Amino acid sequence: MAVSLENNTPHQVVIIGGGFGGLYAAKALAKASVNVTLIDKRNFHLFQPLLYQVATGTLSPSDISAPLRSVFSKSKNTKVLLGEVNDIDPKTQQVILGDEVVPYDTLIVATGANHSYFGKDNWEKVAPGLKTVEDAIEMRRRIFGAFEAAEKETDPEKRRAWLSFVIVGGGPTGVELAGAIAELAYKTLKEDFRSIDTSETKILLLQGGPRILPHMAPELSASAAVSLQTLGVELHTHTRVTNIEGDIVTFKQDNEFTEIASKTILWAAGVQGSPMGKVLAETTGVERDYSGRVIVEPDLSIEGYDNIFVIGDLANFSHQDAKPLPGVAPVAKQQGEYVGKLIQRRLQGKTLPQFHYNDVGSLAMIGQNLAVVDLSLIKLTGFLAWAFWLLVHIYFLIEFDTKLLVVFQWAWNYITRNRRSRLITGREAFVEAKSINNSSTYQTPEKKQPVKL
Amino acid sequence: MAVSLENNTPHQVVIIGGGFGGLYAAKALAKASVNVTLIDKRNFHLFQPLLYQVATGTLSPSDISAPLRSVFSKSKNTKVLLGEVNDIDPKTQQVILGDEVVPYDTLIVATGANHSYFGKDNWEKVAPGLKTVEDAIEMRRRIFGAFEAAEKETDPEKRRAWLSFVIVGGGPTGVELAGAIAELAYKTLKEDFRSIDTSETKILLLQGGPRILPHMAPELSASAAVSLQTLGVELHTHTRVTNIEGDIVTFKQDNEFTEIASKTILWAAGVQGSPMGKVLAETTGVERDYSGRVIVEPDLSIEGYDNIFVIGDLANFSHQDAKPLPGVAPVAKQQGEYVGKLIQRRLQGKTLPQFHYNDVGSLAMIGQNLAVVDLSLIKLTGFLAWAFWLLVHIYFLIEFDTKLLVVFQWAWNYITRNRRSRLITGREAFVEAKSINNSSTYQTPEKKQPVKL
Questions:
Q1: Is the ipTM of this complex over 0.90?
Q2: What's B295's domain CATH number?
Q3: C-alpha to C-alpha distance for A329 and A347, rounded to whole angstroms
Q4: Which residue range(s) make up the domain with B192?
Q5: Rounded to whole angstroms, what are the CA distances from B356 to B132, B240, B320, B363?
Q6: Does residue A178 lie in a domain region?
Q7: One of A138, A176, A183, A428 is an active-site residue; which one?
Q8: Block means of pLDDT (10 residues each) for chain A, length 453 residues?
Q9: Which of A391, A425, B151, B156 lies at a C-alpha separation of 20 to 30 Å from B108?
């Protein structure tokens, strides 16, 4: 590694991506005698695990975002740079952003993952996924817009399509979305409409494998399934979407094909490594797996380049279990902390044992008093799991924001099921409700004309 | 008036617009034996007086919005309809929304006002105004984006343009924006950047007339001017913008022309009645004033149609003072309540004396411990005014939302100058910071490409 011990300029660490991985790497280096440049396309860090609550109207984007500059305001060795990296040159040790060039001694790539439509990229428009604030606002617009459109629709068949929600993917995001939409339809919005009965809403959760939440213990999957069904969600396992055309979703369960008309299809199925993985592969020759993740060494560096690290959702770390570590926040966070520490050790001429993920368990929220918690030794369901989920997230949010009052408000809103944040906003918000979910008929908002007198 | 006393179908009241006027009219009718249809393009009511705090990063849109359906959830006689009214037919007593027709016995038009660029409509793109949530998010993107772009800019002249903010219009919105941006630049963001010194930011407030806040007592205008100047705002009265081209603003003060390069120009100058005023003029022949407002009768109905009322910013009510009532929330609110009451009286065969605006005074926030309050008999400045402003807004927000905790959080954030809500979001958020404020170079966000393996 190009450790700049000989000269006086401090060691330059460049981190690409301000998600959990990048953020915790930068935090680990905040007091080290290195210079850190943290590059992100966005000016904020996003607490992605709660993004589904923005999509379903419980939280505002800023409730789960922290401006990167204010996080590192006091860390004078850390520079936040807003921009998009186009290329990396591992020979000259430079990162390229447009016509700007940032040199590095050590590079940490933490650009995460994007949705994957398994080659059916045309599904993206009809079945949006949930990765960014904009995704969440768009989902929110579609979900609340669907009820609005149903209220105006007089044709019973079309109304049914507006009141049908199909969620593809039974991982945590899919389960949490399905549970939240069920509570919306069957509880929160019940009194709000005059023409429709929101309790007629149909919510389908489609899962390819034999059970939902496959990363949890089988008994917890079963408990979550029962909870979802009690809430009113129709659950289909062993089910794959084979076609989406207009508002018709075709899915295959066992060997039977079913069609359902739905105006709101939400994608929570596949992810793939972000494009930076491809850039790395092209410039360093590093290998990637079937979903575009970069294969990393036991210390999270990449083969042939001990000063380039890949962490978080973009990394395929397979040195602990038979299968790669999952793409979840705690993995990214621990990897960021590990690399931050490793860089400091190396500068002292020391080293660290290989990265080891300390699995603290996993949890998923289904609805009021309904959650599942898998802590290996302890498994919780129902109210206890729900209370535990709440406590854990309060803890994370405090650590994340240190604004106790915000967290208190969040918990309060969450407990009381207050859905203030159900604004339909964005450029398409002015468009007639009828075409809300129909991207092809999108019209630009009416240009304000001056009054002619 | 077509009072439907003879038959059994209840009297149909249609309200267009869910701002302060429409909202309070509907609230006044919530327990009356009439049917109310409240039509709005948006699914929420917006507390517009605090919109500038969304634009400057203190509040989230949902902090100052209330979903219309949840406001009227319990009022079973009230139906909320999401849609845009295209036309009115006063003869058949119908309101037309696309291919939908809504009949009325009494119509209340409360569609408010839009920006006016005094015929220079091409300025709108470079100098956006502040009326909607989208406007506020766009302003926020431009304000925070300007600091980001300045941080990356190496050319000192261009950097100065990024750090120059021009606010056109010295009414409450202009004053509040100028004060908030000054606090951002000189206090909140001071420690956040590494290349720029945000205290070098230049903030110009341009006012056409001889003093800012012309609706207040002269001594309060003077006090506000001193406060703004203490904060660091450069104030120009007797000043008119004569040209905006690219990022060059030309303004004329007395008889001298000055040019300034600014990447962030914010419009808080003129308003005009919304397009619904034109529709009313064409269909009923009612007169409008120079700024497109509809001239109303002493009971807020329009000439020749005692079952059509116009209230709020769209109405020109000149039966109380020599000049029309100002376009502020309390006027709209009281007019809405008046019309709601009048309709009920008429149905009982009674009437009401003409509308009378009870002016409770006006106030404007400048910055921490700096505000001006004009209550006719009592005039406050400095800390006392600031505390009073806070109390009044806490009171309004409680009435508005009844969620004490939210209000408490808001007040806390406000007092502690917490700017969590400074996310740069929206479709253009991914665009390179350099072109952030340059609409002409807008590129669509990079399409996510699947990884090819």
A1: no
A2: 3.50.50.60
A3: 28
A4: 117-269
A5: 29, 35, 7, 21
A6: yes
A7: A176
A8: 59 97 97 96 90 88 86 94 95 94 98 92 92 93 95 95 97 95 93 94 97 92 95 97 94 95 95 95 97 97 98 97 90 97 97 94 85 88 86 74 58 62 59 36 31 31
A9: A425
